[in-house]
Specification:
It is built from 3 helices and no strands. The protein is mostly helical and 79 residues long.
């Protein structure tokens, strides 16, 4: 069964949307999930501009070697 064609979306609009989302993440207070959200933005961008294979391989790397977020950003005791 043939795959239906993807709707044509202007790449510059998709690019600007990805940039806006990444800038928003830079201002986020949710420090522990920013990296994962940025990964989603980048992979969604790659998917939307025809580089699904690159996004798929990146996701595999991330699954194999996830980012470890420290439990505390600083020690809870006084130095």
């Amino acid at each position: 069964m043939p795959v239906p064609p993807k709707p044509h979306v202007e790449h510059s609009v998709i690019k600007q949307d990805a940039i806006n989302k990444l800038k928003s993440l830079q201002r986020s207070d949710d420090g522990c999930n920013v990296h994962g959200s940025a990964q989603t933005v980048i992979c969604d961008f790659l998917d939307s501009v025809g580089y699904e294979d690159i996004a798929r391989e990146f996701r595999k790397v991330h699954e194999m070697y996830p980012v470890v977020v420290p439990r505390y950003s600083r020690p809870s005791w006084r130095s």
